[in-house]
């Protein structure tokens, strides 16, 4: 699974990299993060019709525009009774997207990219003789070419029934990161990895006219090569959020570090 990642690239640089036309104010103001955890606010890239004003004060759907928005990490289905369920839906398995009611509809109509500079994973090591506690080695995993990773994601809108119709916070936007079986050596660290879509798949993945079946096929393409490095254990504590988290571990616990 992908339970922690980092997103510290500047919003405008992300917009340039991902061909984003508009940056929402809250997305521009969201600061750099080296330890993004479930239920945190994250930036997502979506394509939706621009809302155009009408003379009577209302709005209508305009041109489809690619924009950088903010969502809460952990998808909250539209039918959920409360948003707490989102903490258990930070990831969606590629193999069962169409089987899960929470993910099947968004796969067809609400797909997004979740930009990340990299993610964290923990490798289980052999327990020392005479102990039961399994030690783990933390790893920082990022695109080998140093570019921003575009994780395949889904997003959803949830209406808070306790808020008034004119309350601007009545709608919660949430997102999930799609994962698949780990490959290209990453399976030595963990059996799952986030789907990092290649650049040539971005347009089709975001295109709202592409149906769920064709979108699902895009997830079968191999991800770009990843670079790995063992890092210190501080990343396991959400209180730590600084660039030192991705520094190499000078004395890794892993007796045979996975170096890709």
TrEMBL record:
<keyword id="KW-0238">DNA-binding</keyword>
<dbReference type="InterPro" id="IPR036590">
    <property type="entry name" value="SRAP-like"/>
</dbReference>
<dbReference type="InterPro" id="IPR003738">
    <property type="entry name" value="SRAP"/>
</dbReference>
<dbReference type="GO" id="GO:0006508">
    <property type="term" value="P:proteolysis"/>
</dbReference>
<dbReference type="GO" id="GO:0016829">
    <property type="term" value="F:lyase activity"/>
</dbReference>
<dbReference type="GO" id="GO:0106300">
    <property type="term" value="P:protein-DNA covalent cross-linking repair"/>
</dbReference>
<protein>
    <recommendedName>
        <fullName>Abasic site processing protein</fullName>
        <ecNumber>3.4.-.-</ecNumber>
    </recommendedName>
</protein>
<keyword id="KW-0645">Protease</keyword>
<dbReference type="Pfam" id="PF02586">
    <property type="entry name" value="SRAP"/>
</dbReference>
<feature type="region of interest" description="Disordered">
    <location>
        <begin position="222"/>
        <end position="260"/>
    </location>
</feature>
<dbReference type="GO" id="GO:0003697">
    <property type="term" value="F:single-stranded DNA binding"/>
</dbReference>
<keyword id="KW-0378">Hydrolase</keyword>
<comment type="similarity">
    <text>Belongs to the SOS response-associated peptidase family.</text>
</comment>
<feature type="compositionally biased region" description="Basic and acidic residues">
    <location>
        <begin position="250"/>
        <end position="260"/>
    </location>
</feature>
<dbReference type="GO" id="GO:0008233">
    <property type="term" value="F:peptidase activity"/>
</dbReference>
<keyword id="KW-0456">Lyase</keyword>
<keyword id="KW-0190">Covalent protein-DNA linkage</keyword>
<keyword id="KW-0227">DNA damage</keyword>
